Amino acid sequence: MLPRDAYLFGLLSLALHGCGAGSETSPPPAAPKAPASAAAQGASTGPAKAPDKLERDALKTVLPMGLPWLLRRVWPEEVFREGKFVGWRLVAIPEEWTGLDVRPDDVVTRVNGKTVETPEQLWDAWTSLATAPELRVTYERGAETKEIVLPIAGAPAPELLASLTSPSPPPRKAPGKRGTIVIESREPAGDDPDAK
């Protein structure tokens, strides 16, 4: 897997993290190992409703974890047509994405209107979620272009954006002057080659 493969799908997984439930268009999740009560089983047999928003607080928790945390949840493949990059094919759909109209073989082409071909473009889309009003994922399914739009509930977090985009920790305050250090050297007696 190429590094940029991981970046893109990390972003998509992050963006859709916490959007769990069942889907009308995808098969229901596997049955739990421990049997539930008959009433609970009857209530959970129908498809669950897809989420209608993302919570900013969830993004504040997940964004700082970075893309490696997300790479364990997705498997990307680059898609090229006529020698040009098109997007990223979803090979598998993480459990966190159930409830959304996303399937294996869908090709993600944009996140919040941004192309995500290079690691820099992906990072830009990733960090923009700290202040974005919504998550918008554009993808292709066959010949059809589709889009998932989820509003992000909660106030924008510019401080989170600043911490994600800062290349290093803030500089330390310069220490006050401590004086001048002078190192003097004296030739010990008898070590001067010219003195005889």
From TrEMBL:
Organismal lineage: Bacteria, Pseudomonadati, Myxococcota, Polyangia, Polyangiales
Biased composition (Low complexity): 33-49
This protein's UniProt keywords: Hydrolase, Protease
Example GO biological process: proteolysis
Organism: Polyangium fumosum
A single GO molecular function term of this UniProt record: peptidase activity
Biased composition (Basic and acidic residues): 184-196
UniProt region (Disordered), positions on chain: 21-51, 160-196
Superkingdom of the source species: Bacteria
Name of this chain's protein: Serine protease
